[in-house]
Write a structure and sequence with these properties.
By secondary structure, the chain is of the alpha/beta class. Helices cover 40% and strands 18% of the residues. The chain is built from 14 helices and twelve strands.
């Protein structure tokens, strides 16, 4: 949900081999997909980097549980990274073929690094502004000249920029204390800063440690203008040379997405049990509650009518502005909806 995401407890980078976790066949739910194969005799090995946060990897693990990867002729190796920068560096170095991430999907492809081809989710109200009224912050206008803790270049930063501008405040009128999100939240809890812009589920920690803290806003107040899309990108070369493989990735992904939509409670329970044991169940449910996932048929419409492209571009515009990207690649060029649209039936 940010460039680094909300990480589950773990020791470094983790690699999941699909062959160790293949479930039985299941019926396909929701929208049908062109040419869905039976169990493929020959599987293509793919290396996929990912962030371990629900908005990014929910469909990945559901596909694993229901056997969607091997059923679509794929043998993926999923490698966990901690930040979006690390993901794109790994793809640039040839250590992964493709990746799944959050907000930075609108950043590095705009720099010419990778082609996006699949959307996982939309961050709806994951970013939130929390303040200490006893330190004189009662509304957004009170942020002028004050210190705000957050993580620069992430979902939270995108939301803060939008909230300030929507309330007539130039972002240069505040001072950002740039920290990793756990440290930013701790700065707020300790009283070092009067405001923090965070992402769920860090709000739970704030509520527990600073019960008098007030949530002024969340990103839902500016949806869809503040919508942040997360999804999959392949290296430029892989995108050009391996379109049939990307078709199979999309076919498999739709099975996990259909399950998440049709059997949400079952899906979240399964994800909690097998992949998010270190995250309290209420936190996981809260993460899901502030994102938006859609039936595959709705995704198809959002791809086809240009909505996804517009969402991507509005976040790219933010990264272009703060990162001073020269000659940025527009979303209409770095996002390729044609693979999804030609794979998924109406």
């Amino acid at each position: 949900m940010a460039s680094s995401g909300v990480q589950c407890p773990g020791k470094g980078r983790r690699v999941f081999d699909r062959r160790t976790f293949i479930a039985g066949a299941c019926s396909t739910l929701g929208l049908s997909v062109v040419g869905r194969p039976a169990i493929a005799e020959t599987r293509t090995r793919i290396r996929v980097g990912y962030l371990h946060t629900l908005a990014v990897d929910a469909q990945i693990w559901l596909c694993q549980e229901i056997g969607a990867w091997p059923r679509n002729g794929l043998d993926p190796q999923f490698i966990e990274f901690k930040t979006g920068l690390e993901l794109f560096d790994a793809m640039a170095d040839g250590r992964v073929d493709m990746l799944a991430t959050g907000a930075v999907i609108s950043n590095f492809p705009a720099r010419g690094r990778g082609k996006m081809f699949l959307v996982n989710s939309v961050e709806y109200a994951t970013a939130q502004l929390w303040v200490r009224e006893e330190q004189g912050i009662k509304d957004v206008a009170d942020l002028r000249g004050r210190l705000v803790a957050t993580t620069v270049g992430t979902t939270a930063h995108v939301f803060l920029d939008k909230a300030l501008r929507a309330n007539g405040i130039d972002p240069r009128e505040i001072e950002i204390q740039n920290q990793r999100m756990p440290e930013a939240v701790n700065s707020f809890i300790s009283g070092e800063v009067p405001a923090v812009v965070l992402w769920v589920p860090f709000n739970i920690t704030v509520q527990e440690k600073v019960p008098q803290a007030k949530k002024l806003l969340d990103a839902g107040a500016y949806y869809p203008e503040a919508a942040i899309v997360g999804g999959w990108a392949a290296s430029n070369a892989y995108h050009t040379q391996n379109r049939p493989v990307l078709v199979r990735v999309i076919r498999a992904w739709t099975e996990g997405n259909d399950m998440l939509i049709a059997r949400t409670n079952e899906s979240l329970e399964l994800l909690h049990k097998n992949y998010y044991q270190g995250v309290p169940e209420r936190d996981l449910k809260e993460q899901f509650g502030v994102e938006r996932v859609f039936p595959t048929s709705v995704w198809r419409r959002l791809y086809g009518d240009g909505t996804v492209t517009r969402w991507l571009q509005q976040v790219s515009d933010f990264f272009v502005r703060i990162g001073k990207i020269e000659n940025p690649v527009p979303a209409a060029q770095y996002f390729d909806p044609s693979i999804f649209l030609s794979t998924v039936r109406k």
